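Hey everyone, long-time lurker, first post.

I ran two proteins through the pipeline my lab uses and got sequence/structure pairs for each. Pasting them in order. The first:
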Amino acid sequence: MISRQSFLVVLLLSTCALAQAPGPQVTLPSTGYPGLDKYRASRIAVYVNDYGQLARYHDANSALIPPAPDENRVVFFGDSITDIWKLDDSFPGKHYVNRGIGGQTTSQMLVRFRQDVIDLQPKAVVVLAGTNDIAGNSGPITNEDIEANLASMAELARAHGIRMIFSSILPVNNYTPEAQEFFASRPPERILALNAWLKSYCAKNDLAYLDYFGAMVDDKGLLKRDLANDGLHPNKAGFAVMVPLAEKAIEQNLKPATP
C-alpha cells in the first residue's frame, strides 16, 4: 500500500511535469492573405489576454483630468488610421484626444468604448472604424454584425450625452505593391455597403455622418493614389484632406441648439 507521503510526492512530480510540458500549438485557419495570416498569428496573445487592449490607454486615461466646463473635448476613436493621426499638428490648440489602436475591429472597440470614450467625458466622439472588420483582422464578421457594433457605440454615446460623429470607411487602392493585399482583403462593394448603411443610420438617428470617402475616392472608385503610400493609411496629403472635413463636422455638432 502506498503511503500518504509517497502519494503526495508522486502527485507533486506529476504536476510539475504537466506544468513544464509544452501547451497545444494554436493554428489559425488561413485567410488566403499571407500578410493578414502573419498579423493574426502575432495577435493571439492580445486576443486571449486583453481582447479590447484596455491596457493601451489605461495610464493615459487615469492621468487625464476631467474637462473644464467650457472645454470642447473630442475623442477621436478608431484603428490605425486614427492611431497614426497627429492630432496636435492637425488641430493645434484643440482639446482633442486620440484613442486609436492599430489593427482593431469594431468588436474590440466596443469592449473599450466605456473606458476610452465615455469615462473621458467628451462632448463628441469621432468614430472611424470598420475597414479591419472587412479584412477579418479578428475573425470573419458579417456587415450586419459590424453595423450592430457601431449602433451599440452610438446608443452608449447617446445615453451619456456624447455627440456621435460617424466617419465613412475610407476607400482603398491597389496602385502600389504594398497596397495589393490591403485592397484584396477589403472588397470595395463591402465598403460601399457599410457606408450606405452608416449614412442612412445617421440620418434616421440624428447623428453626424462625416464623409471622407467622397473627398478621397478617384474616378475608378479607389483611394486617390497620392493620398496613401500603401493604399490604405492616409499620408500627409491624405490627412490634409480629412482635417477640414473633421473640423466642420465637429463645429456643427458642438454648436448650441437653436431655440
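...and the second, right after it:
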Amino acid sequence: MVTHVLPRLILTAGEPAGIGPDLCVQVAQTLQPCQLIVIADRDLIRERARCLKLPIEIHEYDVAVDRPHQAGHLSVWHVPTRQPVVTGKLDSRNATYVLETLKRAVHACLGGDADAMVTAPVHKGIISESGVKFSGHTEFLSELTNSRAVMMLVGGGMRVTLATTHLPLKEVSAAITSELLEQKLHTIHHDLVTRFKIGHPCIAVAGLNPHAGESGHLGREEIDIIIPVLERLRAAGMNVLGPLPADTLFVPHKLKQYDCILTMYHDQGLPVLKHASFGGGVNVSLGLPIIRTSVDHGTALELAGTGQADLGSMQAAIDMALDLAGKAKLLSIPDAAHSA
C-alpha cells in the first residue's frame, strides 16, 4: 500500500466503442486536485484524442510513483483491448477487456493503492452477449467485493436509492422481501451516517403499488412486507417514513423533509431524478468496502468520437469521489482529544 500525497482516483474507461474514452480524454484537459489514473488501452486513448483533436501526453502508471494530475497529461494503466475498436460499433469480444479494467480498479482500491474508483459507462447487453452474466456495475462490484451494494443516484437536490435494480418489471414484486428491505435500509442508513456525515438521516420509503397499495385494494405488498419492516426499524431507532405513494413522493416541499428516498424498482425513482439532473447526476454504490461513483448516463455510441459528449456527470462523479474519499480519511484520523 502506498501513502499518497494527493488522493488517487482510478477511472475505468468503460465500453471502448462508446463515449467513455472521450470522457477520459476530456478530463485530461482539466485541472483535478488529485492523482488521476485511467485504466484503458493506451492506444485507444490516443486514437480518441486524435478524433477529438485534443492534446494529450500519456504516462505509464506506476503504483509507486505519485503523479499529481496536470492538464493535458494522463496516467494510463494499460490494458489492451482484445479486438481493434471501431468507434460507435459494439464488439462482444472486448467484453473481457471491460471487465478486466473493473477488476483492476477494485483490487487497487481494496489494496489501498487507490482511494476511490470512478466508472465510465459500460454496455450491459454486449457483455451479456459475450457469455458473461452481467446485469450492471453495482451487481458486478458486489460480487467482486463479496458485499451487497445499494445503488444510489444523487442529483437535483435528491438522493434516490433502489430496492431492486436491473430486473424485469414482472419479477420485482417477488424480489421485494423483508430480508431485502431490511438489508437495503440498514446499508443506506449506515452510509448516510458514515460517508455522507448525516447524523440522524430521514429515509422516505416508496410503496410498490399505486397509492402505496390503498389499504390493500391495489396490492398487499405494503401490508404484508413493507410496513412490518418499517415498524421494526422505527422501533430500533431508525427514522424511516412510509410506505409513501410514489406519485407524490417527489413533490418539492416534501423532498425537503428527506435525506434519502428508497424506491422499489429502477424506473420508479430514477426518471424523476434524471429529469431534474441529467448530465450532472452521480451514481454512488453504497455498501461496498470501497468508494465507487459513476456517471448517470449510458455509452452514447452515436456521440463517441464526435466531441459532443458532455463531461458534466463525469466531473460530478469525480468531485463526489474526492469528497467521499476525504471524509473517509477523516474517519481514520484519531480524535485529537484522545490521541493527546
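Reply from user beta_strand_b:
Welcome! Quick read of the second one: The domain at 150-283 is CATH 3.40.718.10 (Isopropylmalate Dehydrogenase). The first strand starts at residue 8 and ends at 12.
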